[in-house]
Recover the amino acids of this structure.
């Protein structure tokens, strides 16, 4: 399979601040690649270098073989970009924004009009065709920006926090369209701190923290790599202030978190902890309301890996 993005020793300094620290990774053609990290980890800085609006301090990045610094125009012709901020032309209508973007991409008039009508229907924007961009809600603005980014049939789509802060309907519509274009062969580079979104959409994810890549793999592989993050979620018919402390003393329990009316017990030894929980409930005259065993989630992986690097 050919490589859509090839990054070698990519580095960015802002004065003495090392924002991105000699990172290396590849994105395969046709995959949805998630780029995760906490705020300030280097996600957006990396994307700015990949799309050619920020010059690396060191290293290189290639988009389908084109060096983003030396062959910028050729690389950008292959891209669709949805930035974190919805930056449409505020005084133009939804339709006029799409027509302008199509013209800038060099899409023939008849083609861009046909594509725009299709996107307006897919993104449920048909009733907003004449509405000025500035009058749209945040969710509708994101839909318009996504349509603008797709007008040139990009080989690679860069999405920076595409659903952050959006309503449920807009989030669903945007995710469905991302999946649809990916099925047609579009490579997607998704920057997000929404762990569940990455888990649902991505073929592989990279986790960045303090400017360094700390893990790259398929979500399920990452989950399987930290069996210590297996957990048991339990709720009793009664609770007390000392219950969390009691549960932490159970042999084999690594950590206990209180989540609403439930407790999450992290362990690498599910069976013995279940037996101890039964004994604890019996001796304290408690009844189980719910009890579930849970495999590690991508959020567990994220928290474990980033907390490790934060302690270094």
């Amino acid at each position: 399979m050919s490589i859509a993005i090839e990054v070698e020793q990519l580095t960015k300094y802002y004065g003495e601040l090392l924002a991105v620290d000699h990172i290396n990774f590849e994105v395969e053609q046709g995959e949805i690649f998630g780029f995760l990290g906490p705020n300030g980890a280097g996600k957006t800085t990396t994307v700015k270098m990949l799309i050619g609006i920020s010059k690396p301090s060191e290293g290189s990045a290639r988009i389908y073989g084109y060096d983003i610094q030396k062959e910028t125009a050729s690389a950008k012709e292959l891209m669709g970009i949805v930035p974190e901020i919805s930056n449409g032309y505020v005084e133009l209508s939804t339709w006029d924004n799409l027509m302008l973007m199509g013209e800038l991409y060099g899409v023939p008039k008849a083609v861009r009009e046909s594509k725009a009508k299709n996107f307006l229907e897919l993104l449920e924007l048909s009733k907003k065709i004449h509405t000025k961009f500035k009058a749209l809600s945040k969710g509708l603005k994101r839909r318009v920006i996504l349509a603008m980014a797709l007008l040139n049939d990009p080989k690679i789509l860069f999405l920076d926090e595409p659903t952050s802060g959006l309503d449920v309907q807009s989030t669903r519509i945007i995710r469905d369209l991302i999946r649809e274009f990916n099925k047609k062969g579009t490579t997607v580079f998704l920057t997000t701190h929404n762990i569940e979104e990455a888990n649902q959409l991505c073929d592989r994810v990279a986790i960045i923290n303090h400017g360094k890549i700390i893990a790259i793999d398929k979500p399920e592989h990452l989950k399987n790599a930290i069996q210590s993050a297996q957990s048991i979620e339990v709720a009793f018919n009664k609770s007390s202030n000392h219950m969390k402390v009691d549960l932490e003393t159970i042999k084999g329990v690594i950590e206990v978190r209180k989540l609403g009316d439930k407790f999450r017990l992290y362990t690498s030894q599910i069976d013995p902890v279940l037996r101890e929980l039964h004994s604890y409930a019996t001796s304290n005259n408690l009844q189980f309301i719910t009890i579930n065993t849970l495999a590690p989630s991508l959020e567990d992986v994220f928290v474990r890996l980033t907390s490790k690097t934060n302690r270094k």
